[in-house]
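HUMAN: Forgive my ignorance: could you write out one protein's sequence and backbone structure tokens?

ASSISTANT:
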Amino acid sequence: MVSHYNDRLSGLRAKMSEAGVDALYVNHKENIRYFSGRKGDDCALYFTQDIAYIITDFRYREMAMEMSDSFEYVETTGEYTTLDFLKSRGEKVLGVEKDYLSLGDYLSFCELPGKEIKPVSGLIEDLRMIKTEDEIEATQKAAAIADRALLHMLDYLKPGISEKRAAAELEFAMKCEGADDLSFDTILVSGAGTSKPHGVPSDKLIEAGDFVTMDFGALYDGYHSDMTRTVAIGSASDEMKKIYDIVYKAQINCCAKLKAGMTGIEGDALARDIIEEAGYGEFFGHGTGHSTGLEIHESPRLSRLWKGVLQPNMFITIEPGIYLPGKFGVRIEDLALIKADGIMNLCTSPKELIIL
């Protein structure tokens, strides 16, 4: 069972009261893992102000029984379904996860007699923004795995290797370093392909004079890391060096000045203002950062739109970029932990322009 369960449950119940729901049905697997410490496949959680249930079937009976100190076990069968369980409960206002419950399940729930089905959002996600010591430790390990894999790639990359082959090598390196899985599909693109922020590795061969952008992360004990490095192969043109220098200055300025108490808008501006002042604002079209955790993209965010306030023990990526269509792009990304007076950077790999 995950630590901090009681604190998380108290926080959730307070949010349930604020949302005006008597019970909350949770089916999003990352939210299930947040409370159970287990993969949230093929099960659901049901919370009231007095009791918590885990709803699953025979295949997971033993797992559910191991959590009997935190959850009452409800076993579903062909004859006794989740709907039967919900029908048996006395709670009148049932909260459901608006962003994750399927339309079919929602319509079925709405047919339950005597119940109001109330879609809610963010009750658990808001709790997940501030990380515990266990979550910080797991993410640090994930980030360290990615750092070690990058060092391997700096020795590996050379002209004549395809993007697909290089991406596979990077993924293999993370697995060899201890990753449970990948945080997301690896981005490894070269040359003109680096102008696409989410480019997909292709059969293109890496060439001398190319930029190569690697955006990747490791999954460790359920937690995701995320980093990006852009390197040059053989040589870099004056324009490539100029753009890299602008992005580098924007990234290190954000790393140096970001801290708790800032809004996501203010944090975004630490990088964006430098890029805009250099005349490349139109080529930086995404936010400066996002959090990671049980999912690769979580709140908080660094963007022009995120008005929330950064707090200690939140994770945030710092990833400004400039993308010149048809030519090349540069992105540099670290994963950081917000502290009261700054950040703790989880990525240790060099950020100055590397020419391999």
